[in-house]
Design goal:
Blueprint (H helix, E strand, L loop, with lengths): L1 H7 L4 E6 L1 H12 L4 E7 L7 H10 L5 H4 L1 H10 L5 H15 L5 H5 L5 E6 L7 H10 L7 E3 L14 E5 L1
Parallel strand pairs: 1-2, 2-3, 3-4
Antiparallel strand pairs: 1-5
Length: 167
């Protein structure tokens, strides 16, 4: 991401992302805090966690996930019709979820920009203790809101999950 911004000649950005895009936004804030003017993470607290691992295990098409969630996989296949496209996408998402991110307390203390985390009170991926950890470690967090929603299986769109605004 930093090389991309450098190539475009963009210095400071407002970073926002949903789900894995939130992890990317947080990574930008951790790696280059002076370049991240503000940060918004929606549905991601920046840590790999057991509920997310269990979610992907339940959906794994190699373990019967197709039978358990046929609508999800039909939509995924329709949006990624190339041979093996949706399977590769799913496996990459699962692998990323299992391994990344894993920010330390020291990493999270680098998030010194105004930071908004949006997480649903029924979101099984963003656990309350992870939100509390972020609130304690990020000095300028302003409003870690907990709204009464859950992480919907069909809420994703074809649009980018990561966006930047710059000045």
């Amino acid at each position: 991401m930093l090389a991309f911004l450098d190539e475009l000649g963009i210095g400071q950005v407002h970073a926002a992302g949903h789900s894995m895009g939130g992890d990317v936004a947080m990574s930008l804030g951790v790696l280059a805090p002076k370049r991240c003017h503000t940060l918004v993470s929606i549905g991601s607290a920046g840590v790999a966690n057991e509920p997310a691992r269990a979610f992907f295990a339940e959906l794994d098409p190699d373990r019967g996930g197709l039978a358990r969630q046929p609508r999800f996989f039909a939509r995924l296949q329709a949006e990624h019709p190339s041979s093996g496209g949706w399977q590769a996408l799913f496996r990459a998402a699962k692998d990323n979820c299992h391994a990344w991110p894993s920010f330390s307390d020291a990493d999270l203390r680098r998030l010194v920009m105004p930071f908004l985390l949006l997480a649903g009170s029924r979101d099984g991926f963003v656990l309350p203790e992870k939100v509390a950890r972020l609130r304690a470690l990020c000095p300028l967090s302003f409003g870690m809101f907990s709204i009464s929603i859950s992480y919907a299986l069909f809420a994703y769109t074809k649009n980018s999950i990561f966006s930047l605004a710059y000045r």
